[in-house]
Amino acid sequence: MSTLRCLLIFIVLATLGACAGKAEQCWVCQREIHPQVRTTITLEGGKSVSTCCPRCALHYGQENREPVRGIRVTDYAGGGSLPMSQAFLVEGSDEAPCMHHPPVIDPAGAPMQMCYDRCTPSLISFRGAATARAFAAEHGGTLYAPGSFPGLPPATR
Ligand SMILES: [Zn+2]
Questions:
Q1: Ligand 1 centre from 34 Cα, in Å?
Q2: What is the pLDDT of residues 20-32, one digit of tens each?
Q3: Is residue 155 part of a domain?
Q4: pTM of the entire structure?
Q5: How many A from CA of 25 to the centre of ligand 1?
Q6: How many domains does the chain divide into?
Q7: Does some domain include residue 4?
Q8: What is the sign, positive or negative, of the torsion defined by CA atoms of 55, 57, 62, 65?
């Protein structure tokens, strides 16, 4: 058997093994979905897909692969889903649940500023105004009242 063939078999087996016990992944960026920020997109054709966070769902809408009919988000404080247009949204806080790599440290030991990540600035959803305000007071970020977030796809407002 050639070395290449051996290598291919190894890769296939390794991939199968890795997939076996894996948590659910984001349909857009393939990251692990954290239950607190889980987001569901309903497409024009009626299909529903899950993403790791509202930010990813909006990316999908902007890339316009298939028109988005609705986006449902999870209440970060209490769980349960609600339409994104009815949620309070906090953008750019220091919480970024779907970025599971630790901060990058430069050779001198100082944390380096992350320039770009698909899921930043983070976008976190809340059902209640009080929990959203308390979260923004603690973690920073900009609070948007339901329906006022500028990035919402028109069809989902
Ligand atoms: Zn994602």
A1: 10
A2: 456 789 998 888 8
A3: no
A4: 0.75
A5: 8
A6: 1
A7: no
A8: positive
